[in-house]
């Protein structure tokens, strides 16, 4: 009998030790929709795993640090098709145990998921939607934003153009809704930093394909006429998120002027050519793993997943509520190869970050520019500041 009791006690002790050695499982959801594959240039057509690859690489990085605290991070991804219900997809991830869900959705879908997710205690991290309203009148207390706003992109570009003393802008705007939203941000940036829009024109999208045998000749005839007879300007700024015309503007304008905005000098959060502050190390790892270059969406998804990992490791807990409290606290920051730690704006949960300016091959500059000052952080010169916000969390 004694031997049996001893064996049972040993089994209980062994089982307890085994359980104690089991790492804490932290599950992260990635909810995404298929990216549009309509691009002016074939080399810009996104990969099927655009964004997802960045999240996967960051999960590996989370595990590299999390293992020291006996934490294990798992990424669960869910693709939302054109006719699929994004709320059902979010619920499926929540049912699998994901309390943090990184989202690459348009604004409408994101709001639906956010409202449904509040009831389930889900925290969403937006990595793709640029819409200002998501951080302003439609802000949600359970949505953190890693993707920049259009105003952050426009301000980063405007600071550099003003620094160059290219203050006279011609603004060429596409005819789609998102083009108009980016144009609004550019107008605000011009006013904010002392530039002047001397003329505005609209490029009407009449459809049709330019990738034909006669396409190059047609573009060469058409594009100069778009800017013919314009008021004297230093730079042509294009608002063309729909990728209809801006890519055709460089070297085809009527007057010899630089192009910026949606083509030429482009504001972004990341580019495959970026090589400062240790970024080459991340670029090389990504390219080796996925056999392609790292995009801005990849980097935004990488940053979002790393924020969760930082909260788990530095916050000292894998409990979702405590992790979220740490992310929202003044102590939180995340390193993302941008030359400084990135922090969260407490008034709208937008991640502060520099804006990179690229010409298609090289880093031209990084904003905020020297001389643009702020009483709290120079990064708050990019995008709407605290006194301007309309956010009241729901």
UniProtKB/TrEMBL annotation:
Highest taxon in the source lineage: Bacteria
Keyword Kinase on entry: no
Protein transport among keywords: no
Leucine-binding protein domain sequence ranges: 49-329
Keyword terms, alphabetized: Amino-acid transport, Signal, Transport
GO biological process: amino acid transport
SUPFAM superfamilies, per database record: Periplasmic binding protein-like I
Stretches that traverse the bilayer: none
One Pfam family of this chain: Peripla_BP_6
Family designation: Belongs to the leucine-binding protein family.
Name by which UniProt lists this protein: Amino acid/amide ABC transporter substrate-binding protein, HAAT family
Species annotation: Bradyrhizobium erythrophlei
Source organism phylogeny: Bacteria, Pseudomonadati, Pseudomonadota, Alphaproteobacteria, Hyphomicrobiales
């Amino acid at each position: 009998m004694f031997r049996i009791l001893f064996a049972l006690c040993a089994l209980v002790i062994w089982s307890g030790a085994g359980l104690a050695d089991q790492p804490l499982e932290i599950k992260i959801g990635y909810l995404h929709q298929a990216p549009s594959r309509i691009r002016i240039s074939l080399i810009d057509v996104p990969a099927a795993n655009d964004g997802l690859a960045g999240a996967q690489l960051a999960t590996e990085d989370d595990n590299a640090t999390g293992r020291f605290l006996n934490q294990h991070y798992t990424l669960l991804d869910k693709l939302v098709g054109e006719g699929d219900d994004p709320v059902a997809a979010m619920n499926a991830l929540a049912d699998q145990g994901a309390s943090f869900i990184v989202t690459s959705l348009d604004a409408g879908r994101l709001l639906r998921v956010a409202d449904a997710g509040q009831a389930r205690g889900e925290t969403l991290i937006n990595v793709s939607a640029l819409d200002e309203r998501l951080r302003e009148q439609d802000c949600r207390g359970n949505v953190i934003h890693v993707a920049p706003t259009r105003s952050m992109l426009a301000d980063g570009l405007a600071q550099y153009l003003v620094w160059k003393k290219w203050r006279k802008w011609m603004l060429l705007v596409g005819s789609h809704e998102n083009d108009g939203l980016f144009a609004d941000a550019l107008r605000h940036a011009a006013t904010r930093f002392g530039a002047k829009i001397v003329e505005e024109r609209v490029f009407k999208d009449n459809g049709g394909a330019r990738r034909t045998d006669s396409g190059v000749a047609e573009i060469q005839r058409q594009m100069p006429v778009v800017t013919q007879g314009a008021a004297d300007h230093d730079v042509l700024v294009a608002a063309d998120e729909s990728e209809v015309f801006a890519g055709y503007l460089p070297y085809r304008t009527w007057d010899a002027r630089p192009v910026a905005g949606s083509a030429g000098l482009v504001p972004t959060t990341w580019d495959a050519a970026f090589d400062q502050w240790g970024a080459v190390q991340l670029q090389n790892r990504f390219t080796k793993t996925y056999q392609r270059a790292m995009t801005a969406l990849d980097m935004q998804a990488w940053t979002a997943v790393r924020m969760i990992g930082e909260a788990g490791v530095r916050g000292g807990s894998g409990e979702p509520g405590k992790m979220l409290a740490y992310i929202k606290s003044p102590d939180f920051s995340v390193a993302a190869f941008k030359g400084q730690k990135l922090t969260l704006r407490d008034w709208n949960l937008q991640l502060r970050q520099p804006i990179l300016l690229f010409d298609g091959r090289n880093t031209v500059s990084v904003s905020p520019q020297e001389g643009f000052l702020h009483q709290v952080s120079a990064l708050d010169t990019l995008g709407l500041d605290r006194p301007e916000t309309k956010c009241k969390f729901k």
